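Could someone model uridine-diphosphate-N-acetylglucosamine with this protein?
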Amino acid sequence: MEMLTVQGGAPLRGDVYVDGAKNAALPIMAASILLNGDVRINRVPDLVDVQTMSLLLQSLGATVRHSDDILQIDTRRINLHHADYELVCRMRASVCVLGPLLARFGRASVSLPGGCNIGHRPIDLHLKGLAALGADLRIERGYVIAEATQLQGADIFLGGPGGSTVTGTCNVMTAACLAKGRTAIRAAACEPEVVDLARFLNAAGARISGPGTSIIEIDGVDELTSVSHTVVPDRIEAATFAIAATATRGSISIHNAQPEHMTSVLDALRAIGATISVTPNQIDISTAGPLNGVELAALPFPGIPTDTQAQFMALLATVPGVSVVTDRVFPDRFMHVSELLRMGARIRREGASVVIDGGSQLTGTRVMASDLRASAALVIAALAANGESQIRRTYHLDRGYTQLDQKLNGLGAKVLRREDNSPSPGGPHYLQKDSTVRNTSEQSFD
Ligand code: UD1
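Reply:
Sure, complex below.
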């Protein structure tokens, strides 16, 4: 298992380049099952989650090649409809194969994803949407078994207690592409990654209108054809660099970004005191003046993404004044709080919110990453801290950030990746196929 050693205190300066969005690439890869042909996806990040989805597609019979940032999938030989627990339990986005398998083959057996570190993660809305399209669904021994001779278009309300569902919208929208007649998804997720999936499907011959709004309409077609698509830039990666630059009182330019997908994040950073200018593909951010605390809430798009909540919390711990951070999407997503406290942050949890008494000088120490974005928050705290931090369980970061350590070092940070030989606390461990050691009791799937 690897860990990161971070020598804190250096303001980030310089230029950094953002990769393609993991959360767009994964459902697009899954949706490629719908086609019987060749799929070329450009700007696919080289991440553990992408490798996991590739393994899942291969386990179904597809051929997958990933070279540089181009992913090529041949779906002609897919002949299995079974997504096994061993792969699905590594990554929640695996559930995105359910709709495409059902729509193309009339049958799917997909493991339920199981528990997750960021709170209760049901898939009832995915199932509700597919049932509305005419699927016969049952749960057997931990698997969703879905069957349908021919999906039929339907009018579907997909809202839930946490608002819209991103991967649920992806699953139902993709399945509806091959349904007979028209489908309307109401309370659809508006996230840019859903829009990117719709662009991919439309390029392959689907007839989807309204992506990016709360009503998506899909007119079913008989088949989809081979396609080439370029994945949208990763707004969460870009936001992580912008927040890290602010936390270290630095000044950086973020290239290959899409600022129009980040207005809430940039607005919050401006309210905190950062100076920001944007062009269509670039964000320049600096922090010359004083910073101050704010009140912010993670919400569905276009609100502040829950996937940046932890990083904002690390920043606000360093900012003088009181801040309040609420997560309305995942109200229990606060695993990072206890590790930030160990670095000297003053944070008090109150239900789905935390109150931060900001401005403390964080100090480096040994901390444990609990999930992907919590790890990013610890890296940001470590960059802003006095002295050295060791961040253990780096594999969480590698699920969602391409070479984060190298990119930060390019901005003047001092981050070292090395083997962590210390004994791991917290129960039994097993060796994964990809040679990372994971605690069987913790999985994080954002
Ligand atoms: C996706 C993202 C994840 C992000 C999340 C919210 C991917 C691969 N992952 O996850 O990074 O944090 O969106 O922006 O794109 N819910 C239900 N029933 C369901 C499904 C969801 O009640 O069937 C609830 C969830 O508990 C949560 C809310 O809806 O409160 C949003 O979850 P959802 O948008 O589905 O998250 P994911 O798609 O799993």
